[in-house]
Design brief:
Belongs to the ABC-4 integral membrane protein family. LolC/E subfamily. This protein is an alpha+beta fold and 412 residues long. It is built from 15 helices and nine strands. It has two domains: 206 residues, no CATH class; 191 residues, no CATH class. α1 packs across α13, α2 crosses α13 and α11 packs parallel to α14.
Length: 412
């Protein structure tokens, strides 16, 4: 064992006899440990929300969509072929996007209708995950069927099998509006994704949508599903340059990108808080080490009289102060990692026991606090904690190293 570390451990053990110094030292270790644990948990929650955004919310929102400027696409099959030839595209499918109103006695409800081909939709959307097998089968076998979100179905007080009248706006060739087209549909199924989409979106068959919109072609848009959702903006423009269609280019970052930006903003703030919290906790290390240096003046003087050089004394007190940060960071890292892994289960248990909900289904696209622990975050938090601990020791250690032996022996 090297001599500076051995001396630091000896000083540390002798300091335990002094209750006040021992308390200050323990508080600095606990502060650093709690700071590391809390930040690991918060970063894991942010990772969980980002993963939920990718896998859940964006499974129903088009990653990229090409929508005809007017009417229908001339050849949507060619758009699908070109899109699927791109290595970043997982699949493509035709769709017709319609604004609609659901009519009931005395009231109307606005809705975005997406006319889909069920066999294609399963390739580009996670809709199938939020619909029961029976409802999905009935939707496939009901040409005039409609899939409604749970929120909209509850507002309308309808169930599977009920009839609905949907009104589709109609545009004149001059650009004005004419009498809307009334479409009689039957509720063939209900999907329950959670959040705003349950109140805003519905699905009908592609043929029904084409008839309701009176399109000359088979589809007004093509939807793409990507392997990496964050590549959407540049993939959308790369494919668009190969198309012979006049189409609007949409990607999820333009419509739903605020959710991702909010998550990244909170993550950035967490990293800033990490540095500030650990810096404050490290001040205890400074105060502890200053008092230790004051207490060990005679020991420092004796070591220097016996031949200890400036570097040995400096390293000794750097080691002594850093041990608090190292122990705190490691304990905080382990504790924070365990809490991050079991956080969803713990919060679910508390919600069950006390009958409350942190994330109501009607407001959020996730029903419980998600958490995803990344080793990278753990290493960053522990590394920053150790670094700030070492930096906090430099000034007291420098003071100890520059202490003159005669001053130490005199007790000055």
């Amino acid at each position: 064992m090297n001599l500076p570390l051995l001396l630091a451990q000896r000083f540390r053990r002798s300091r335990e006899k002094t209750r006040y110094l021992s308390f200050i030292s323990a508080s600095s270790t606990i502060g650093i440990g709690l700071g590391c644990a809390i930040l690991i948990v918060l970063l894991s929650v942010m990772n969980g929300f980002q993963k939920a955004l990718e896998n859940d919310f964006l499974s129903l929102v088009p990653h990229v969509e090409y929508q005809a400027v007017r009417g229908s696409l001339q050849d949507w099959q060619e758009v699908v072929r070109v899109a699927e030839s791109h290595p970043g595209v997982r699949a493509a499918a035709p769709v017709i996007v319609l604004s609609a109103m659901i009519q009931q006695p005395g009231r109307f409800r606005g809705l975005q209708l997406r006319a889909i081909e069920p066999e294609y939709e399963a390739r580009v959307s996670g809709l199938r995950r939020y619909v029961s097998d029976a409802d999905w089968l009935q939707f496939q076998n009901t040409p005039n069927g409609i899939l409604l979100g749970r929120g909209m179905a509850d507002l309308l007080n309808v169930q599977v099998g009920d009839d609905l009248v949907v009104m589709i706006p109609q545009l004149q060739s001059s650009g004005g509006l004419r009498a809307p087209r009334r479409l009689s549909t039957q509720v063939a199924g209900i999907f329950a994704m959670g959040g705003e989409l349950d109140f805003q979106q519905g699905y009908i068959h592609l043929a029904t949508g084409r008839e309701a919109a009176r399109l000359e072609g088979d589809a007004s848009a093509v939807r793409l599903a990507l392997h990496n959702v964050y590549d959407a903006p540049h993939i959308a423009h790369e494919i668009a340059r190969q198309l012979n269609e006049f189409a609007y280019i949409h990607d999820w970052t333009r419509t739903e990108g605020h959710l991702y930006r909010d998550i990244q903003l909170v993550r950035t703030i967490m990293y800033l808080v990490l540095v500030l919290v650990l810096a404050v906790a490290s001040f205890n290390i400074v105060s502890t080490l200053v008092m230790v240096v004051q207490e060990k003046k005679s020991s420092i003087a004796i070591l220097k009289t016996m031949g200890a050089d400036h570097r040995l004394i400096l390293q000794t007190f750097v080691w002594q102060g850093s041990l608090n940060g190292v122990v705190g960071a490691l304990l905080g890292g382990v504790f924070g990692s365990l809490v991050a892994v079991y956080l969803p289960a713990m919060l679910a248990f508390l919600e069950t026991q006390f009958a409350f909900s942190l994330l109501p289904n009607e407001l959020y696209f996730v029903s419980q606090i998600p958490s995803q622990l990344l080793i990278r975050d753990v290493l960053v938090v522990i590394g920053v904690a150790m670094l700030t601990s070492v930096l906090a020791t430099l000034y007291p250690a420098w003071r100890a190293a520059n202490l003159a032996p005669v001053d130490g022996l005199r007790g000055r």
